[in-house]
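Submission sheet (multi-component)
Chains listed below:
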Amino acid sequence: MMQTPRRTDARILVVDDERVNVVLLERILEQDGYTNVRSTTDAYQAATLYDEFEPDLVLLDLHMPGLDGFAVMEQLEGRISSDSFLPILILTADIRPEIKRRALSAGAKDFVTKPFDRTEVLLRIQNLLETRFLHLRFRSDAVPEGRAT
Amino acid sequence: MWRRYGDAAYTLVTLAIFGFETLALGALSLSFLLGKWAGVTSTPIEGVLLATVVSAASALAMVGLYLLSYQFVSKLRDRRHAGQLDTWTERWIGLALADDSAESIAGSPRSRRLPRAAVHAVLSLLEAVKGEEGDRLKAVLARHGVDRWLLRHVASGHLTARLDAIESLGKARLPQSLDSLLVLLEHPKPVVRRMAVRAAAGTVAIMPPEPGPDGPGGKFIQALKTADLKAGVVQESLLLLETKAGAVLRDLLADPDLPDSLLWVVLETVGRLGLADMAEDISRYAKHEDPELRAATFRALHRLGTVPDHLQRTLLAALNDEVDFVRIQAAHAAAFLPAEVALPALEPRLGDDSWWARRAAAASLARLGDDGVSTVKRAAQTHPDQAAREMAVQILLEANLLDPATARLAKGVA
Amino acid sequence: MWRTPLTIYQYLLLIYFSGLNILYGLFCCVGLRAIVVIFAREFSQGTLRDLLERDVYKPVSILVPAYNEEVSIVASVRSLLALQFPEFEVIVVSDGSTDDTLGQLYDAFALAEQPLATRQDLPTATVNRTYRSLSHPNLVVVDKENGGKADSLNAGLNLARYPLFAGVDADSLLDGEAILRATRLFVEDETLIAVGGTIRPLNGAVVKDGRVTEVAMPKKWLERFQILEYAHAFFTGRAGWSHFKSLLIISGAFGLFRRTAVLEAGGFLVGTVSEDMELVVRLHKHFVRKGQPYNIRFTPDPICWSEVPSDLGTLRRQRNRWHRGLWETLWTHKDMLFNPRYGRLGMVAVPYFWFFEALAPLVEVSGYILVVLGMLFGFISPRFAVLFVLLAVLYGMLLSQMAAGIETFLSTRYPRLRDRMLLFLAAFLEFLGYRQFLAFERSVATVQAPFKKGKWGKMNRTGISGTNSRTPPPDAERNLPPDDRASDHKSPAGV
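Outcome: structure written.
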């Protein structure tokens, strides 16, 4: 049985077209102990970064010029295998209930509206990561080799 | 989209040139006329012409110089602004996330005015984060007198400064700005009124709810009732109320002397926001004498996906209303009546005069379960009116309940 | 003898010249104020939150008239379908295409023939078949008999089911965000019946995935001059007229209209060469006569990117056609001229278009001829002649530069300094031949106008070539012919 990795070692990818939001999230995560955070303001880079970085969690904005959050999720869906659990947390200013429904059915695991509350966001991130690591642990128990990504 | 500095100067430059140009050309024309009429030789005219040419050339040089320098200046300024924005953003984030609320900005005295980039950074952050961190950022604005400065510009000063201030207040959403913003709803310029109502709605959205006419919602409503704003603008602002929208809409509906135009907006907004628990409150307008309001009620009920039981008779009657758009909206809403009630009422609507009513009826029927679908299928083949048959076929196609071959056949037969 | 009439003509010329320049100057100022000062603040990026823009919109029907566009139609439709816009439909109307336009669409979009229940609000040439796309439910294709662009637009209107519509050229690139902002204008103002957007030349821009990602100056001076011209036309001309509520032109390549209003006014007029301007003038007329409050305005938002001619021949034919179209429209609605019933429109805007737009090239050309003749026959001193021409050129440069100046305030202006300097230079060079060439062509058009009603002439479209190409769809040919596509929209023969 493998060790559960420390929550704060988790790899987190932030995608938002507003530089201010990106920096804000980076600092918030930093302050909470996360050391492995990458980010981009260019939605076109998201998929490439995903391949390189192999994050445990993605923080994604919905309304971005060019490629929007839904399109990014579509791209990522092709890369995630069916038995892995990649949490995508949507952060958006759009409060319409149908957008929330659409995002959750498009593959997002959780949804936070902007302006957000720091404590709440951190808690949700924590929950998602715990689920993710649990999932990985069960998968690795089933498969004798080391941690599979 | 547009840079906002230097435009005032440029406007002045163009205005000056324009004025100058008018004078020069006027002088030229006049001298020409006088010259030819009075028989004076052409030399003075040429002199004036020369002068005009010289003035044109200098005007051109002036504009050219201004634009050239603007290019360089703006490039530098943009770069500097971007750099400053980054620095201030980091600083403010540091302050917002700090565990203690003591002042952590080194060497910035209380009263010093913040540079534009700093204010810009705070406002952007306020759009992203709320709660304790948001409050700390708002405190920063207060500490440096930014809020007072903004309020001062909102209350007086010329148009561009005022508009900039309203925009900033819209982002900052400071409770103390509500009154000043609401006053602007009476301003003669429509653009000021529009921007003010949006900013005010955003501010009401974050203020703690306080019932009664002196609470933020109450004040907002009072101002709305007397303001000269187009319906669409009011609707936008109501949507901006976020969580406070329900309460404000309820208060508006309860108001006895609510003008019809506002009532229409309220009905639309209830529908758009999906406030299903207000279906009862709006249902009495289904019988209003104004057909627009009747239609708006049915449209809202359609969006809410529910029709209160006691409204069934009214809805069924509305399906035969003399005004076409009322029939259309009633037909849409009928999809949420119990099937046994709706089916017999909707079927005749397939032959309605109005194309849109036919479509609405067919679409609603298709949503009413198997019985509804078979009604549509039957109509596709046997309805006496060709238009009804075609509409039925189309609705079935769109819902993937019919394949194209059968459709072609149906059209051929019909 | 003949001196006096000539002198009078000289004088009139001078007055005309002065009046024209003063008006242009006035527009510059007004345009600047209306746009940069007011619009910039009300519609700045950050003012509106996502919710507002996304929810407060109206769905749009995009009508695409197409005639023999087999080479580019699939790419165009694909980029339209990819628009970032919450709710819209695309209606492609093939105007009796004789090439593989329909075939290309059929393959690319899994079209299935479906007899669509249509309204017959407007009379059109016979519609043979209608198709729906199985892969893109919001795409409809219409196969109809040849009837011209206006006829195709009317056919599209008969099928359109949304409250707003836009008629676009098959090779224009639309900006979804900008359209969203434009539809907001309709929501805010229920009396608004048409909005004209801004067109920026696509030449030189880098396009990726159907979006413009970078603007750069094109290589040819001809294209550069046109960039300046468009900036001038939109940011001063249209902005100014819109401010005075007398906007008479909304470009066919992009305009957003309220469907019911256009249907009420009778749809597009078949058989005219500039159906876009004609429609707008008729809309004004209809609603003024009806006595109903209405609004038609312009938005400086860059909504549409369109390819402009890069060779002299195509440019000539295009300008010839535009000018003939202008005359056709003005003549069709000549009852509005100096008619106080139409208020500012009848007394100011329409006369302006008659005397300062339609007649201007003739006056300009006659002015040059007069100067030359005057020098030859000695009743104008050479010094006077030279000075006068110099004055005309200088004023032209001045106005051009003032308009170009507005361009520098755009945050999406040309990022490279070199490009901006080129634009600056172009404002000077424009008047050393280009403008005169256009004036000549438009004068020719004026003479031809009564005889060539409704004819388009052959257009060379090079497509968006080389490094600026859109990502070609996977099933398109890689080796597209670099030039000539027979892509004219023909009007019914013999009209």
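Remark: Chain C has 14 helices and twelve strands.
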